[in-house]
Every structure is written in structure tokens, then in C-alpha cells.
Amino acid sequence: MTSPASRGLRYAALAALAPLLLGGCLAKTVVDVATVPVKATSRAVDLATTSQSEADEKRGREIRRREEELGKLDTQLRKQEERCLRGDDRACREAVETRRDIETLSPSVPVERR
């Protein structure tokens, strides 16, 4: 059986050698622990913000969606006007509503300059 004094000496020697033996691991662990809050904050900021290119892509998709809708309304209006000219009163009323929809949507679609 070992005496408490020799056991204490062993623990002291082990404690003195631990930083030398575990220096790289310990230093890396300290750095990892210290950078965790920074990484977490950075990730949260990345998730919360939208980059300019992401915003541009989103705007482009929205503009294309509006252009597509405007094209569908235009086709619908032409068909309604044709039926209206043939005497279909209901088609005339629908054409008026479709024209209003087009007038409402048109300002939100940018005009291409040539």
C-alpha cells in the first residue's frame, strides 16, 4: 500500500507533466471552446441576413412570375375580346375585369430598355 504522501507526489508529477503531454490537445480544446460562441454567432448572422446575390435572384424570380402572369392575362383578354366582338356579353364583362387585372399588375413589371 502506498502512503498518502507518495500518492500526492505522483499526482503532482502527473499534473506537472500533463500540459507537456497534452499540450497540443489541450491548446486545441481551449481554442475550440473559445471559438464556439463566435462560430454560433456567425452562423446565426448568416441565416438572418440575405446576401445581395440571393436578393437579386429572389427579385428576378418574382419579376418572371409577374411577367408570366401578365402573359396569361393578355392571352385571356384577347380571347375574351374576340368572343365579345361576336356578341358574347359575358365575355365583354370578363374582358373589363381582366383589363383591370393587367393594369394593376403592369406597374410591378419593369420595362426593358432597348
Automatic annotation (TrEMBL):
UniProt entry keywords in alphabetical sequence: Signal
Endpoints of the signal sequence: 1-27
Name the record gives this protein: Lipoprotein
Organism: Croceibacterium salegens
